Amino acid sequence: MPALLSMERITKRFPGVNANDCVSLEVESGEVHALLGENGAGKTTLMNVLYGLYEADSGSVYMHGKRVSISSPSAAIACGIGMVHQHFMLIPAFTVAENIVLGTRLPKEPLLDLNKVETAVRELSERYGLSVDPCAVIGDLPVGVRQRVEIMKALYRDAKLLILDEPTAVLTPGEVRDLFDILRSFTAQGKSVIFISHKLNEVMEISDRITVLRDGRVVDTVERDKTDKAQLARMMVGREVVFQVSRNSVHGSRHPVLEVGDLTLHNHGDKPLLSGVSFQVCEGEILAVAGVDGNGQQELAAIVSGLQKASTGSVKVKGQDVTHLGPKQLVSLGVARIPEDRHELGLIMDFTIGENLILDSVDRRPNSRFSFLNRRAVRKQALALGEEYDIRPNRPEMVTRSLSGGNQQKIVLARELSRTPSFVLAFQPTRGLDVGATEYVYRCLLEQRDRGAAILLISTELEEILMLADRIAVIYEGRIMGIIENKDADIEQLGLMMAGTSLGLSTAL
């Protein structure tokens, strides 16, 4: 029997970049096929070709042994291919049934019969164990259920192959388990899944086979039972990757560096974005804030870094009230910030490496003198930091946009951490990074902790939090549900708190 999908010698070039170089991929019926690779390895480009968003320069695509031409997403859907994007494509004000029928080729009747759609949705929900009410309004549903609706959209269009792009990025541990049960039910009926993820634990749990890309080429395709995380990481980055970072026991003082007191932030709706948030971070410790994305983390980070003003409450750094200070004043007090979005808040992408490294000190010697930039001094400093933080290539005059995501993040780390800050705000510091760059960020954060800096780590990655944190605060709908010691942390317990269940844990500072 021919494979459900065969992509043969797919090549896709962009100016100056060979994104896919003769890539071949084969997906069998009834399997979960994981697609791994570093940032820029070619995974997204390959899937965009398959889903009709890009046209390949050369190569062929076959479904069940028959060559197909996929020139648009509509053509992909007609071939039985569905894609669930990382950022959901749903209209919050519409019901589940209304969202599912959007974009579907409708019958010729003059009026849409939503009752028929709702009946079909209920049947699909029961068949695959999706537990979705077709009459529910999307805006009232939690993130995990919204993802089921996205999957159901593909099933309603009779998808035989599902492409899932980072499907667990916004899910709690319980929701991840539910998703995997759904995928197993899906493949048990002979349908297939392409699973794109950077979480190797999940890839090892759910996949049957794994294809690894590096620099636009296929390194290898392996069976899940015949490989392990270390081998996969080695294929991805071309070297050994250490997954367990060395973290010394807590040795920090109990002297608080950051004190957040009763922070509240109101919006124009009924619920506040933050409500009574209080905690402190002491010298030589990492306090991690865990939670599903969208529960107030962005607002908390903005207030702590001086980008937004709280409605009520206070923020203190080393005993000084900084509630109303801006980012530049916080820098002078020893505050470093690793933002969630390095492109928007961490770097100026069209500036050079050297220019980005002096963004917070451009008006100080030796970087400038008499309002003129000292290019020689900027280059000298950039070369030194490039060597210390392993920025590749170490060429200060290169435009930042041309670097990989990992090297762009190293520029942010070099600029912020070379000042030996007393407090570091690290908001999703490894988002979008491959395993090699992630390992480097972990080492940097732990080095700062070990020298005595206080670190507030805001992350949606539980594995990352458990690896780095000394204490863990869980946030849900703008409230701190509890703060626990890492040694006492339990995945199930954290998952329940992330879903809004109060377990009566201490919320003490």
What this model shows, in words?
There is one protein chain. β21 (471-476) and β22 form a beta hairpin. The chain has a six-stranded mixed β-sheet with strand order 6-7-8-3-9-10, with helices on both faces. A six-stranded mixed β-sheet has the order 16-19-20-13-21-22, sandwiched between helices. Strands 2-1-4-5 form a four-stranded antiparallel β-sheet, covered by helices on one side. The model has no long low-confidence stretch (mean pLDDT 89). α14 packs parallel to α15 (435-450). The chain is built from 17 helices and 22 strands. The chain is globular, with a radius of gyration of 24 Å. Helices cover 32% and strands 25% of the residues. With 509 residues, the protein is an alpha/beta fold.
